[in-house]
Specification:
The protein has 436 residues and is of the alpha+beta class. The protein folds into 2 domains: 192 residues, no CATH class; 235 residues, no CATH class. It has 9 helices and 20 strands. The strands form 5 sheets. Strands 15-14-11-12-13-19-20 form a 7-stranded mixed β-sheet, with helices on both faces. It has a 5-stranded antiparallel β-sheet with strand order 1-2-10-9-3. The model has no long low-confidence stretch (mean pLDDT 88). The structure holds zinc ion.
């Protein structure tokens, strides 16, 4: 996993994983259990404060309150604070989902007493000594020393160059399948601000539920059929609803209820892995196409626009669908860092009118977007897959400031069509007829 940091759009952060082996478990277990106790305290105190004072406590309030707790004094202060921060992140994630209509979501809740919670070490929480990380606990406790292989801090970019990163965050996670299988160290490296090309071609992307479209300045049009991802996402939603229904009929906390809960978690983990794999393959293909075609700027629809239109009265079907079904934030973030690793800059741009304008002649009429996703222009007679028309308009918008009232100054070639191939686990090019 990797992402680009908010502090600078071209700062690249990347996470590498190192399996530790179960023999390290006795060393990490006390810290992980302490982190779990802090989490449970967050849940408990939030509920109590709400019950007694009819308000939710703030992050600072909880941090101050827990300082005297025994569990807090097991960990390095930054690691203990990180648990509270994660709790508040989970709460705001829960709220966002509720706002988007996912009423089946539950607020963050208590974890079993023996749950091994991930522990995070921030910059001041660890030292680097040659090929070893020294992870600090509270002042009175011995730090944990982890030896790492040669070249542990070197990250290889897609073009083969190795970059030495500065570790900025370390996390220890337990891998669970029925029981603890392993411990994995996740080290996040700061690779600094990556240089991006300042001149070059432009490509634009139209994100939809079942299809993604791409248009580039060299005349390339690409259509990515993502029905496979969408159906997995829908199946995942249905699975959640089914379990929710089943669990609502059981007594909360009972043995059958708990068994149902762990079955739910197992199923969702498996489904999530499959969805994430397809998302990764898709964004990787985007970045590879851009790199191969000398693209310097990849343009994507601005998600803040989308949210605003979904919240205000103009609840377009497209906006609602986009918000509810696919993880657009995650896809954007993935496309962004994969591009960055190849020197391609990602720019969000407004999608206004891009789905109701003809990309060829610039005439605008929402009614020309026909059923079954076709754009049929009433003026110049262009017939094009509607999402490709949208991507081409986004490209025009980026180049000229607006997509309406202006003819396309260059020609597009035949669209290429890509589809998920189960056997090779990647998107492959298929004949255009497959798009129908
Ligand atoms: Zn037209």
């Amino acid at each position: 996993m990797a992402w680009s940091d908010k502090s600078h759009p071209h700062r690249l952060l990347l996470t590498k994983q190192f399996p530790l082996g179960l023999e390290m478990l006795p060393l990490f277990q006390p810290a992980m259990l302490a982190a779990n106790r802090i989490w449970n305290s967050c849940v408990w105190h939030s509920r109590e404060t709400f019950k007694q004072e009819n308000r939710w406590p703030t992050e600072t309030e909880l941090k101050a309150k827990f300082k005297s707790f025994a569990a807090w004094r097991e960990l390095h202060s930054q690691s203990a604070q990180a648990v509270v921060e994660e709790y508040f992140e989970a709460v705001s994630g829960y709220r966002k989902h509720r706002e988007n209509g996912h009423i089946e979501m539950n607020p963050p809740s208590f974890k079993p007493k023996n749950h091994l919670r991930t522990v995070t070490w921030k910059r001041q929480g660890f030292d680097v000594k040659d090929n070893a990380l020294v992870l600090k606990l509270s002042r009175k406790k011995e730090p944990i020393k982890v030896a790492l292989p040669e070249g542990w801090n070197v990250v290889t970019l897609p073009d083969g160059t190795g970059m030495k990163g500065t570790p900025v965050e370390v996390r220890v996670k337990a891998v669970l399948r029925r029981k603890v299988e392993n411990l994995v160290l996740h080290v996040t490296f700061d690779l600094g601000v990556v240089s991006v090309y300042r001149t070059g071609a432009v490509s634009a992307y139209d994100y939809n539920s079942a299809t993604f479209a791409r248009a580039a300045l060299n005349g390339a049009l690409d259509l990515f059929i993502c029905r496979e991802i969408l159906s997995q996402v829908q199946y995942r939603n249905k699975t959640i609803a089914d379990f929710q229904e089943k669990m609502s009929r059981l007594k909360e906390g009972s043995r059958r209820w708990r068994r149902c809960l762990s079955a739910k978690i197992r199923r969702l983990k498996k489904l999530d892995r499959r969805i994430r794999q397809m998302e990764h393959a898709l964004t990787k293909l985007f970045a590879e196409l851009d790199e191969a075609e000398g693209v310097a700027f990849a343009v994507v629809g601005d998600l803040t626009d989308l949210r605003r239109s979904a919240r205000t009265g103009m609840k377009g079907r497209k906006a609602t669908q986009k918000i509810n079904q696919m993880a657009y934030d995650r896809l954007h973030a993935e496309q962004r860092y994969k591009n960055l690793m190849r020197g391609v800059q990602t720019d969000p741009w407004t999608e206004r009118y891009t789905s109701s304008t003809c990309c060829l002649c610039g005439a605008r009429n929402p009614a020309w977007r026909k059923h079954r996703g076709l754009w049929v222009c009433g003026k110049c007679r262009l017939i094009l897959q509607a999402d490709l028309n949208g991507a081409a308009n986004l490209l025009k918008q980026y180049l000229f400031g607006s997509c309406t009232g202006r003819e396309l100054p260059f020609a597009f070639g035949e669209p290429r069509v890509w589809r998920w191939d189960k056997r090779s686990n990647k998107f492959v090019q298929v004949s255009p007829r497959a798009a129908a």
